[in-house]
Design brief:
241 residues, alpha/beta, 6-stranded parallel β-sheet, 5-stranded antiparallel β-sheet, 9 helices, TrkA family potassium uptake protein, NAD(P)-bd_dom_sf, Trk_Ktr_HKT_K-transport
Length: 241
């Protein structure tokens, strides 16, 4: 279906087909690009109670996203007028998950930053794409296949490291499983809890999560420590477990 202008297209879709009201109290996210990655984001965010605006040029993808997102719109966000019409600068975070069209991804990211969007995360196709996104101000660059590969490799190499994530600015977060070697030790005596530059954010014991746990807490086999710190120091500490 064709419309006379971008503005009319947006109004037609948001009001007559997917016109749900977004609550200002809730976190609001926009996802641009509804491939497998973008669609998964929409579904997970929505299931966790967030307000989600799903955007794509493909009407079929938008119709699918309408089943899970708060709103779904057929629109071209590499167009400055579209970004203004959708008021994307009001959103807490905009995720650009455009697939193969690198030029559209770059232009959309640039326009979002110029429009004053608070936080822009972008899915990158490769290293070159990532470098350009970094130069134009993307707040976080994600390479799903590479990132997943790194996580799986870490887990294959060391079963004690349940999860490892880079948070940016040289800081990382890890989930470390307590083994028999550290059973009965206090958190403050665990290598990750005793280093002055790493911090234990939480202790997971079965279904229970203790935030900012007491350093004197004795560890049990199977406990999971959630730790953050400088990536190099965290990596060095994990290797010594």
């Amino acid at each position: 279906m064709l419309f006379e202008s971008t503005t009319k297209q947006l109004k037609r879709y948001t009001k007559s087909v997917w016109g749900k009201t977004m609550s200002p109290e809730d976190k609001q996210f926009a996802v641009i690009g509804l491939g497998r990655f973008g669609m998964s984001l929409c579904q997970e965010l929505s299931e966790r109670g967030a307000q989600v605006l799903a955007i794509d040029l493909d009407e079929t993808c938008v119709r699918k996203a309408a089943d899970v997102a708060t709103q779904a719109v057929v629109a071209d966000c590499s167009n400055e007028a579209t970004i203004s019409e959708l008021k994307l600068d009001d959103y807490d975070l905009v995720m650009v998950s455009i697939g193969e069209d690198v030029n559209a991804s770059i232009l959309t990211t640039l326009l979002l930053k110029e429009a004053g969007v608070k936080t822009v995360w972008v899915k990158a196709k490769d290293t070159s794409h990532s470098k350009i996104l970094s130069k134009i101000g993307a707040d976080k660059i994600i390479r799903p296949e590479r990132d997943m590969g790194i996580r799986i490799a870490r887990n294959m190499l060391d079963k004690r490291v349940f999860e490892f994530s880079e948070l940016g600015s040289g800081i990382s977060l890890a989930e470390v499983v307590v083994t028999a070697k550290n059973m009965g030790r206090k958190i403050s005596e665990h290598p990750c809890g005793s280093h002055k530059e790493t911090q234990v954010l939480a202790l997971k014991r079965g279904p229970e999560v203790r935030k900012d746990p007491d350093p004197s807490t004795e560890l049990q086999v199977g406990d999971i420590l959630i730790i953050t710190g400088p990536e190099k120091i965290l990596n060095d500490t994990l290797r010594k477990l």
